[in-house]
């Protein structure tokens, strides 16, 4: 009877915690879905503005008609600040065209026929160039603003998921939250690519990291990260170059994984030289044609600059974003093929100016109390064996690895007091350093200056 009296409240408490965890997980999933839908809707609205609305306004003004300046906005974005900004861009574009058109006609009336022709042509050329520059600047600003908002919201959502991962130890909830966090990291990387191509900064700062941790952080931002096999390097990257290199390597890894067979691996190696370290990424996938290789070489070397307006209705911002980061931060990227696997090789050369001497700094290991961090042992179902584990490097970068196969029930009973302490330590360390850094905006001055590309 005493056991029933004590056990009943504990059972009710366990049920309440489980219900709360499931409700919280469902809310996080809904937030992630809403963020993804809004990003897709905003991209479609910008494409509609650049390729339909603005040309229609220009043509109407050219025919001396009253242009219709209504902007089609997806239902998800109606009555939002983003929709107002699009309408402002369209209205300003129409008004600027109207003013230029009226001034041009006045100039034509004041001058003689020969002089009028010459000056009209010059005025129209200047007007077109000015309007094109204004339109490009406005569109880039809109893309940059929206992308930055998505990165900020994604970072906030990632922090909420990270907190939930530390608090909920049920394997099913843990696995679901990990998938949500992985999706959020991919969403942030995609949004960052648009921000970078539009002239913005990556938007996140990290402490100094070893190249091994940089590669691990990049691996955590790609879909099929379990197919990545990385080497080791103790060389340390300076703080301001960590996020650009993580983003660059994540984009190259995503490209390699996307265009290689699902049964193959992508190899990441490090070649240390006198003037720096080269990160080598090899895949066994499709090779680029000579024309594609030459186009990639021109973009990555900076011979041909690319902005968001040159990418068409289905923009591929991977290589242009990498090229922008390489120019700003002083590293270089090359692609070549075939490699020893018959696929493609991507190389990221990190000069000594972006490296520091010595090993990566390590934060002191936190003390783990049994009450705070030791979870109740949970038997893992067969389909959960080999699930992925979310970890944090000493500098705060999220990375992932394969979770070890769950032990037999007898082993769980014998080792229940040691369930996942290393994981709890990693999360505790990450919460003190990296997660705080992830929310910060980079404060670099103007002096510092995706998606598959095959």
TrEMBL record:
Domain of life: Bacteria
Keywords assigned by UniProt, alphabetized: Kinase, Phosphoprotein, Transferase
The organism's taxonomic lineage, starting at the top: Bacteria, Bacillati, Actinomycetota, Actinomycetes, Mycobacteriales
Gene designation: cvnA
Residue ranges, compositional bias (Basic and acidic residues): 441-454
UniProt protein name: histidine kinase
Family matches, as InterPro entries: HATPase_C_sf, TCS_sensor_his_kinase
Enzyme Commission code(s) on record: 2.7.13.3
GO molecular function: protein histidine kinase activity
Cellular component per GO, a single term: plasma membrane
Catalysed reactions listed for this entry: ATP + protein L-histidine = ADP + protein N-phospho-L-histidine
